[in-house]
Amino acid sequence: MPDAEKSQNQLANDKLMHRQVSKKTNYSLVASGEEGMVLQLADGTIQACNAAGDRILGLTAEKLVGQNLLDPKWQFIHEDGTPLLSETHPISVTQSTGKPCLNVVCGFYKPNGELAWLLFSSQPLFQAEGSNLYAIVTTFSDITESKDAQLEQNANCEPDTQRVDTDEFQILSVDRKLLRSLSDGYL
Fold first, then answer.
1. Can you give the pLDDT at residue 115?
2. Which residues, other chains included, contact 65 with Cβ-Cβ below 8 Å and sequence gap of 6+?
3. Whole-angstrom Cα distance, residue 120 to residue 116?
4. What percent of the chain has pLDDT over 70?
5. Any idea what DSSP says for residue 165?
């Protein structure tokens, strides 16, 4: 088969797959108003993003489509502030295992430098006739307000410890001895 014909066949297959992916996920991309959603091909290339995803990530669909969220320019962090490495990112886990990676809390630095906390999940999509992973649907919710409230609460919590006054301890010890000697006299 000549190279031009192979290229045309590949292009036709890619368009067909894109249409199939779009049909299967379009309702979800529109239906989910508060949850961000990104559709990526198996190689991680973003094909579509809903409006909530744009808003949450602080990026337009034009800036996202064609990109890869695993690119080092997108800064994700763990809850403890350490970098979320691409190998442990939920998208990578789904790519390598073919299994969902659900409810992972991570931080994302928006282009304006603002930190958004996300509850992140990724789901694999397989071709109907086989077990080949052809796309990944990634959903995320902005949990920044609740995460900030939790961090503030943790910062304001004082350890619940009391100093033991040694004089008070000695008085308690004397009171127990007195109580014991009194009770011995009555028994």
1. 94
2. 46, 47, 48, 49
3. 12
4. 65
5. P
DSSP 99-129: S-EEEEEEEEE-TTS-EEEEEEEEEEEE-TT
H and E: helices and strands count for the chain: 6, 6
Query: What does DSSP assign to residue 86?
Result: G
Q: Please give the Cα distance from 142 to 36 (Å, whole number).
A: 8
Write out the H or E segment, with its range, that includes residue 134.
Answer: strand 133-142
Structure letter (DSSP) for residue 98: S
Compute and round to an integer the Cα radius of gyration of the chain. 28
How far apart are the C-alpha atoms of 96 and 103, rounded to whole Å? Answer: 18
Place of tokens 């998208």: 91
pTM: 0.64
